[in-house]
Design goal:
With about 350 residues, chain A is of the alpha/beta class. Chain A is built from twelve helices and 13 strands. Classes of the chains: A alpha/beta (about 350), B mainly alpha (about 300).
C-alpha cells in the first residue's frame, strides 16, 4: 500500500465517562488509496462516526485518541500535529460532509458567505474573489442560478439544495479526502440518488478520495469500491464491494444484507438482526457479536476472533473461517433465546 | 409554528436507528421567506420608546424654561398645573415640565448606558465560559454564583453612600457592573447549546480558528436572547435608578432625574401632589414601554416561546 493517501493503524478512541470507559473505536486499521471510495458500514453506535471524527481529530473530551494510534495522511501522522497544523488540514486537505444539512449550516449567514468563509480561512483571498469562488462552486454542485442562491439563507433552501451547499463548502478548497458521514440519511430517496450521483461526478472531476460512512448497504453498493463493516468498535469484515454482496462471510454482514428490502421479493415482515449493539462500556467477551449471532458456539463466547484472511483482499473477524462446517447448524441467536426464556 | 428542524427531528432519529432503512422522514415545509409578522404591541411600544428618546434628546428645544432656573421664589413657588406651567412648579419655583424633560435625559441615559455596559460585560464573560467549557467554565460559573449571592441593592447603596456625591459616569458604571450576572448566565447557557450544534462542529471540521468561531458562529446565534434580556433590563434599571435617587444617593442635585424629582415631591404629596405624580407617571410609562417591547421582541425572535404561550 504505497499509494495510500490515508492509513489508519490501530486506532483506539475511548470516552471516559461516569459509567466507565466507552471503547467507541477499539483497534481499527484501514487505508484509503488516492482517488478511491471506501464505504464504512454498520449500525448506529458501532463506532463509524467516531472513527470519522478521529481522523480529523475532532473528538472532544471526555473522548480521547489513545496513544499508539496512528493516522497517517499524506505522509504525516495527524495524531502528532498541534491544533494550528490541524486547522491547515481541516477543510483544506480533508473535508467532512455531515449527515444533517438542516443543522450543518449556520442559520444567520447566507450560503455564499459560508462557502466564501472557507476560502478566506485557507487562502489569502479578497472578499470579492472568495465570493466569486463560492458562486462558481455552487454552480459546480448543480445549483441553478448560483449567483442568486448564494445570497439566500439556509432556511430558504430545500434539504437537497442545502446538502449541495454543504458539499460545495467541503470541496471548495479541493481536498484530497472527503469524509461523508451519512450524507444522504436525512434526505428523500429521490434526492439521495441525486446526491450520490453528484459525489461520484465530483470525484471524477477533482479526483479526491471519499470515505463514505453509512448504515445503508444500498448506498454502498452503487458508490464504493471497497467496504469495511464495523461492529462493536471494530472492523469485522472488509472486502471489495462485489465480493461482499456475493459472498459475505461474517454473520453480521449476512444479517445486514438479509435486512435489506429488495424489489421483487414479497415478505410480510422485514428481516432484522435481533437485539441491539451492546453499550461500548461493556463489549461482550469473546466475539462481540456472539449473543446476536445465529451460529455462535462456545468458542465465540471465550475467544476474541482475529481478522481471518478469507480471500484476496477479503478479511473477516469470525471463527467460522476456521470451522466453516458450523455454518450449517444455525440456531436462534442467544439474545432471542434469552428473551423468550424471560 | 415549529421550525422544521424540530418538527422532523424525531422522525430522523427514527430513520437513523433503523438499519439499512428506506424510511425517509416526513419533512415539514420550509418557513416562508421574509420577515416574521410583528404584533401591534411591538409597534406601539417601539413608537413610545422612540418618542421618549426624542423627548430626551430634544429637551433643550422643548423645555419652556431652564430646568434649574428659580423663576420667582416667592410668587411661583409650589404652583399647581396651569397653562403657563402645565406640570406646575416645585418648592424652588422651578418649572416641573422643564425639569422632567431634562430628567428624561438623565433617567434614560443612565438606564441605557448601564444596560449596555452590563450586556457587554455579561456577554463577554458568558461567551468565554461557554466557549472554553470544562474547568474554565466551572471556575467562572462558581465565581459568578458568588457574585450573585451579593444583594445588588445593598451593594449599590453601600458604594454610592460612601462615594457621595457620585458623578453620573460612576453611577452608570456601578449599576452596569452589578447588573451583568444574570445576562452572563443566560449567554453561557445559550453558548453551551450552540456549541453542540452541528454547524459549529462543521465549522471546526473546515478549519475555522477559535476567534473566528466565536465571532461568526457562536455570537450571532446567541444574540437574540441577549437583546431581549437587555431590553427588559432597561425597565429594571430605570426603576433601580429611581429607587436610588429616591434614597438620595442617585443623581445629585440640582441635576434632576425622574427619581429625584419624585423624591422632592413625595414629602408633601397631599399639598403639592403634582411634583410626585408626573415623574411617577413618567417612570411607569417608560418601564411599561420597555417591558412590553421586550416581551414583544422575545415573541418575535423566539418562535418556541410564542408556540408555548399559545398552547398554554
Amino acid at each position: 500500500m504505497s499509494d495510500a493517501l490515508l492509513e489508519i493503524e490501530n486506532l483506539h478512541t475511548f470516552f471516559y465517562g461516569e459509567s466507565g470507559v466507552a471503547r467507541a473505536v477499539d483497534g481499527v486499521s484501514f487505508s484509503v488509496g488516492t482517488g478511491e471510495t471506501i464505504g464504512l458500514v454498520g449500525e448506529s453506535g458501532c463506532g463509524k462516526s467516531v472513527t470519522a471524527l478521529s481522523v480529523l481529530r475532532l473528538v472532544r473530551p471526555p473522548g480521547r485518541i489513545e496513544p499508539g494510534s496512528r493516522i497517517v495522511f499524506e505522509g504525516r501522522d495527524l495524531v502528532t500535529l498541534d491544533e494550528r497544523q490541524l486547522r491547515a488540514v481541516r477543510g483544506a486537505r480533508i473535508a467532512m460532509i455531515f449527515q444533517e444539512p438542516m443543522t450543518a449550516l449556520n442559520p444567520v449567514f447566507t450560503v455564499g458567505e459560508q462557502i466564501a468563509e472557507v476560502v478566506r480561512i485557507h487562502s489569502k483571498t479578497s472578499r470579492r474573489e472568495a465570493w466569486q469562488r463560492a458562486v462558481e462552486m455552487l454552480q459546480i454542485v448543480g445549483i441553478p442560478a448560483p449567483a442568486e442562491r448564494a445570497r439566500e439563507y439556509p432556511h430558504q433552501l430545500s434539504g437537497g439544495m442545502r446538502q449541495r451547499v454543504v458539499i460545495a463548502m467541503a470541496l471548495v478548497m479541493n481536498p484530497a479526502l472527503v469524509i461523508a458521514d451519512e450524507p444522504t440519511t436525512a434526505l428523500d430517496v429521490t434526492i439521495q440518488a441525486q446526491i450520490l450521483e453528484l459525489l461520484q461526478q465530483l470525484q471524477r472531476r477533482f479526483g479526491m478520495s471519499i470515505l463514505l460512512i453509512t448504515h445503508d448497504l444500498g448506498v454502498v453498493a452503487e458508490t464504493v469500491s471497497r467496504v469495511l463493516v464495523m461492529y462493536g468498535g471494530e472492523i469485522v469484515e472488509a472486502a471489495a464491494v462485489k465480493t461482499l454482496f456475493a459472498e459475505a462471510h461474517h454473520p453480521y454482514t449476512e444479517g445486514l444484507l438479509a435486512a435489506m428490502p429488495r424489489l421483487g421479493e414479497s415478505r410480510d415482515r422485514l428481516r432484522t438482526i435481533p437485539g441491539t449493539v451492546p453499550p461500548p462500556t461493556r463489549w461482550p467477551n469473546g466475539c462481540r457479536f456472539h449473543d446476536r449471532c445465529p451460529y455462535a458456539w462456545e468458542r465465540c463466547t471465550l475467544e476474541h476472533p482475529p481478522l481471518y484472511q478469507i480471500g484476496a483482499g477479503h478479511v473477516s473477524r469470525c471463527h467460522l473461517a476456521e470451522e466453516p462446517k458450523r455454518r450449517a447448524d444455525a440456531h436462534e441467536p442467544l439474545v432471542m433465546q434469552r428473551s423468550s426464556r424471560a | 409554528m415549529q421550525p422544521p428542524t424540530h418538527a422532523s427531528a424525531p422522525a430522523e432519529r427514527l430513520a437513523a436507528s433503523g438499519l439499512a432503512s428506506a424510511v425517509t422522514p416526513p419533512r415539514a415545509p420550509a418557513p416562508p421567506p421574509g420577515r416574521r409578522r410583528l404584533t401591534s404591541t411591538f409597534w406601539w411600544s417601539l413608537v413610545l420608546i422612540g418618542l421618549l428618546c426624542a423627548i430626551a434628546l430634544l429637551a433643550p428645544l422643548l423645555a419652556p424654561y431652564s430646568p434649574t432656573a428659580q423663576l420667582d421664589i416667592i410668587g411661583l413657588k409650589n404652583q399647581p398645573p396651569s397653562l403657563a406651567h402645565p406640570f406646575g412648579t416645585d418648592q424652588y419655583s422651578r418649572d416641573l415640565l422643564s425639569r422632567m424633560l431634562f430628567g428624561a435625559r438623565i433617567s434614560l441615559s443612565v438606564a441605557l448606558l448601564a444596560v449596555l455596559l452590563a450586556a457587554t460585560v455579561g456577554t463577554a464573560y458568558g461567551l468565554t465560559a461557554g466557549y472554553f467549557g470544562g474547568r474554565v467554565d466551572a471556575i467562572m460559573m462558581r465565581l459568578l454564583d458568588a457574585c450573585l449571592a451579593i444583594p445588588r441593592v445593598l451593594l449599590l447603596v453601600a458604594v454610592l453612600a460612601l462615594w457621595s456625591p457620585v458623578p453620573l459616569g460612576a453611577l452608570i458604571a456601578t449599576i452596569g457592573l452589578t447588573g451583568w450576572f444574570e445576562v452572563s448566565r443566560l449567554v453561557r447557557a445559550e453558548v453551551r447549546s450552540v456549541m453542540g450544534r452541528e454547524y459549529v462542529l462543521a465549522a471546526r471540521a473546515l478549519g475555522t480558528p477559535g476567534f473566528r468561531m466565536v465571532w461568526r458562529h457562536v455570537l450571532p446565534n446567541v444574540l437574540n436572547p441577549i437583546i431581549v434580556a437587555a431590553t427588559l433590563g432597561v425597565g429594571n434599571v430605570i426603576m433601580l435608578e429611581a429607587g436610588l435617587s429616591y434614597l438620595g444617593i442617585g443623581a445629585r442635585a440640582p441635576t434632576a432625574s425622574w427619581g429625584s424629582i419624585f423624591f422632592d415631591g413625595s414629602d408633601a404629596f397631599q399639598a403639592t401632589w403634582w411634583i410626585a405624580l408626573f415623574p411617577g407617571l413618567a417612570i411607569i410609562i417608560t418601564v411599561l414601554a420597555f417591558n412590553v417591547f421586550g416581551s414583544a421582541l422575545r415573541d418575535a425572535l423566539d418562535p418556541h416561546q410564542l408556540a408555548g404561550d399559545r398552547a398554554r
